Amino acid sequence: MQALDWWIISAYLALTMGVGLFLSRQGSKSLVDFFVSGRSLPWWLAGTSMAATTFSIDTPLYVAGVVATRGIAGNWEWWSFGIAHVVLIYIFARLWRRSEIVTDAQLTEMRYGGKMAAILRGTKAFLFAVPINCIGIGYAMLAMVKVVDALELWQSLGITPGDNLKLWSVIGVSVFVLIYSGFSGLWGVVATDFFQFFLALFGAIIVAVIAVNHVGGMGELIPAVQQATDIDVLAFVPFHLNLTWSDTAGITASTFSAYLFVQWWSFRRSDGGGEFIQRLAAAKDEEEAEKAAWFFNLLHYVVRTWPWVVVALVAVVIYPDLGDRELGYPRLMLDFLPVGLLGLVVASLIAAFMSTVSTSINWGASYLTNDLYLRFLRPNADQQELVLMGRLSSVLVTVFGAIAAFYATDVATVFRLVIAIGTGPGLVLILRWFWWRINAAAELAAMLCGFVIGLITSTSPVLNELIPDFGVRLMVISGLTALVWITVMFLTPPESDATLDAFYRQVRPSGLGWHRQRLRTGILPGQDLSLDALRVVTATLLLFGSMFTIGGFLLLQPLTGWCSLIVAVLSGFALRRLNRRQLPAIPRPGLEDDDSFD
């Protein structure tokens, strides 16, 4: 890298710090301002921030490794979550906003009651804030170390770095993030997320365009990548048009089935996920929350997928003997980007890293402050004390994340570990919204059992050898966890009528599971579950149809492109008709004199 590149990176860092510190007053007023932006985020800002959160520096490296080793179909490992994210749009976004919580852990003491609910809230807050969150920060830092190493950033300054210097340089960037996120809270995080996301996306597109031009265009890339691999690298799904499984697919039938039919509902984010819930809770109202969730899906799946995939395909062709396939992305940057443009794209990767780490810091601190400190240690703390605790918690989360980075070695492996330890409780998290019988003991059992089984099956060499297929492993985790929590649920008493009635009045969920509460309170539900389910099906077809339309035409697969386009168009028309069938407005609880619709 040359002096111009470093000037561009320095200007970006200065701008980020300036924006973050400028918004420090906004986050200093109260706990709600610090962690959910005073519940005043517009949909486009909340949605972009959700997308930026999932666009870390590790993701293009992860996609490069997945495509090279498992083909494009290997991306179902994260594409499958698109189903859960569409469910979030039409079923959960409005429920979360209506609950008016600060963290998703806080919901446990709204949905459940008594000592068990308090234990569940504290356990959940600790698990999400420390081990799970900090592992995520750790592998983001690992990816940053790989980029620093591959781009030879220290060498460009005339310094010969050791391994520790590389890691400490990444931790230094994390401390930089900590300064502005710790002062400004979620306001600073989402504001910087907005331009960080589009800078990171612009950088990804630049790398894709230059890389494809270098190999002679898509017409040259497609046959070259097919010759360079032993798997059906270009297949979107691991089966043929006659629906028979492909022998050359990069993933097995069991793994694909687990991704498509199990992972999205069994994972701990089946009803949204902590960082997403934080944005939805910060939205202006329920409608804005729903729009934010849709905008995130479009940016995350339709817009962002293909620049990463294309770069990964080029890396397979240009670097056929690369030992660490995840390094293909930064190697292309270093080898083919000119001065100035390289600095801009490096700044875009730093932006991707900072957007994810700043979110993880603020999210983890929200659990430590709201669900541990305020709930159990200082229930009478004033707002200034809570803001101070939020900042101190941000420091603590950053330190733990740095420690995790010292032990992480491989981005894709750690990503699978995160999925494994989060698999199991997802079904409980869905059912608790729609069935009164789910109790705190069942959710606690599901969360702990899934975490322990996922950790053991992922880290034990014996079990790894016994269950080598990742899809089978996910099914085993889900099955054993379900057996445990269902048993626990029926062996423990249900929640009290008072607790269930209060939750129903606040959130107004639909479904047969709340029939008793509906009769007791006389309040009609705030959603039409059957209509929302139809919208989920059509919106899922629209989302994946749109994504594969772009991919099909881009990768010179016209049959896939045209079929996907037809699916997307028909689904779009169907969804538009369904959206016209809306429930009438419902008065807010406590403000109406009767229980009828306006």
Can you describe this structure?
This protein is mostly helical. It has 28 helices and no strands. It has helices at 3-22, 24-27, 31-36, 43-53, 58-70, 76-79, 81-99, 108-111, 114-150, 153-156, 163-214, 218-228, 253-266, 274-282, 286-303, 305-318, 328-336, 341-377, 383-407, 411-422, 426-431, 440-459, 461-466, 470-491, 497-507, 515-521, 529-554, 558-579. It starts with a helix and ends in a 19-residue tail after the last helix.
Q: Gist?
A:
With 598 residues, the chain is an all-alpha fold. The chain has 28 helices and no strands. It has helices at residues 3-22, 24-27, 31-36, 43-53, 58-70, 76-79, 81-99, 108-111, 114-150, 153-156, 163-214, 218-228, 253-266, 274-282, 286-303, 305-318, 328-336, 341-377, 383-407, 411-422, 426-431, 440-459, 461-466, 470-491, 497-507, 515-521, 529-554, 558-579.
List keywords for this structure.
globular, mainly alpha, single chain, 598 residues, 28 helices, 0% strand
Q: How is the main sheet built?
A: none
- Low-pLDDT stretches are 584-598
Percent range of helical residues: over 70%
The structural class is: mainly alpha
Radius of gyration: 24 Å
Shape: globular
Q: Count of DSSP helices?
A: 28
- Number of strand elements: 0
Beta-strand portion reads: under 5%
Mean pLDDT: 84
CA distance, first residue to last residue: 64 Å
| SSE run | HHHHHHHHHHHHHHHHHHHHHHHHHHHH
